[in-house]
Amino acid sequence: MKKSVSQLAAIYNDRFEQMLLSLDEAIILSGQKTEAMKMFEDSEQAESRRKLLMVEELANKQREVAATAENNFMHQIESDFHRTLIPDLENRFNDIEDVFFNVLDFDHSIGKLLDILYTEACSISRLVACIENVEWLKKSIIKFVRQPKYRRVDSQGHPIILRTLQSALSFIGVESLRSLLPVLIAKNCMPPHSEFTPDLQKHLWLYTIGTGNIAKALAEKRKIKSHFGFNIGLLSTIGRSVIASLYLRSFDDKLRERIIDARKRNNPNQAKALSGLKPSHKYIMTLWRKHADNINAAVFAELNCRWLQIGIGFEDYTAIRSISYKSLEEQNLHPLTKLLFNAQGYMQFKMMQTQKLMNKEASMLYLRNFGIKSDDVAIVTKINLTGIELKISEDAPEEI
Length: 400
What we know:
The chain is mainly α. It has 21 helices and two strands.
């Protein structure tokens, strides 16, 4: 049974990663039909196909054989292309300064900011000093406070427009900033939208904020500071974001280079085949499994936080040998690593359950594999997974 639970978890982990990239692909992978497929089956076109004459069916089979040969050729082209692309990507993954400054657009001030944020000595002026160096964060805060629901008016009824970082931070308040600022930092790490990964930006963000909120909620029960749990959850998808961003960007650059080279070598067939290549979910998922946890650990180490001591949680995560909570216990990994593992497992379950990609029986086994017990479920079901509680107004929790 232990082996079957582990195998089940591996199957659903694959399904979850596919869902992050494309919900339709995950639905097909689960043996179900997408809405588009159901609509097609109900259409007149599908009905006419069912009525094809035998001779037409034979012609279709012959075309399928030819298509198989074409697919084999394209598969070889794709494999050869990625054999040149992957080493270049892995070199970039290992260049953490490049990842930190150029891919994520981070600054060491972010590490100082996260340290200050949870101390008693935290003040608006100290936060301003850190944020002034991070232009995108400054803009995000100003944009946040200018939302219509936070608009205030003066004694004459004129709208009060907050123009400076100092006034914006003062308006939000230190307590709410302890939730908002890490969320804005995590949000900025999300990969850009791409037609080849249609659901990645949306689903990866839901996974990120959900994991942060779950880890925060479960932290106290595990004798861990709640802000440690919140931040390790929010920052745990940086590796996936970096890999997806660099893969999509490098894919286009390398493809252009290879097509030009094929044309120079007077090889029009290869150039044509290359021009038909598209980014591969399979390769993104493989790179995630191999490199994402290492990138998380290295990026957080580069932040050089001294008070937000969650780096050991990321470091130990890279040492996980088997995707099973029992294995983490046998390895005696850090409590933060176990907390993150719990939180990710629950959010993966929740997202798949919402999309009907996991049945009830599988859910129970899957949660057990991630070390989630009934009292954990009781805690997590009471929280808003995708919002944050801010004490700015009486409005509902923020969805960011």
